[in-house]
Each structure stands twice: as C-alpha cells, then as structure tokens.
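User: Fold this one for me? It's Zinc finger CHC2-type domain-containing protein.
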Amino acid sequence: MSAAMRPSGRAVSRLADDWVERVRAASDVVEVIGQTVQLKRVGRNWTGLCPFHNEKTPSFSVNPDRQFYHCFGCKAGGDVFRFVQETEKVEFLEAVELLSRRAGIPIPERRPGERAVRAPLLEALDQARARGARVSGGPRP
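Assistant: Here's what I get for Zinc finger CHC2-type domain-containing protein.
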C-alpha cells in the first residue's frame, strides 16, 4: 500500500477507538459476568459472590444501566473489559479481542503478519475454554 493510501496514525487510532466502542456496546456486563458468577437480580442491580475473593454473603454488585461492577468487600470494580482482564489474566487489548470474537466483531489488524502468528493461539484458547465448559457442565447462567 502506498503512503498516500495508508491511513494516517490519527485515522488508525480513530478506527481502533470505533472498534473498542463497538465491542463495548455488544458486550453486556451482566451477560459477560453472568457466565462466571451466578447472579441474582436485586432491584435494578444484580448481585452474587465476588469472584476475586472468598465470601459467604454476596457483596458483588453489577449495574446494567451504567455497565459496571463493584465488590463492596474487596473494592474490585470496573467495566466489562476490566472484568475480563482480571478473570482471564490478560491485558486490555487481549480482553477487547476476546469480547470481540465472542460478539462476532472482526478484529482489525494492528501490524501485517501479527494476526498470522496470534490467530492460531487465540483459536486454541477458545477451543480449550469450550472444552472446559463442556467438562464442567457448561457456563453458569
């Protein structure tokens, strides 16, 4: 691609921002967290046992209107990306990619050839996660 046809740094950044926002809009925090935490509706929020520390009484709250979670016990909190980062032990970009694949949103290429190396690894991760869900009886509602 010639320099004249290549998007500028600002245009690439805007495309990446658009992608992140599309993934955010397609990833409901209650649905994503509900795959890991058994949630119960209490008023406008959802509550459950915090996945980040041991507890017997639910102190973990998910707000669907504002699309964030908060634990009143350990003070963990954030949005859907932060939850995936914490539970999957990945960086921000990998969390966005995981949610992007889950939502069926194409992942834009960052650098030529980079996806060719990472795609098989990410595919193997998805297969292992699916196999683990089958063994454990499936994802929690």
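One thing worth pointing out: The chain is about 50% helix and 10% strand.
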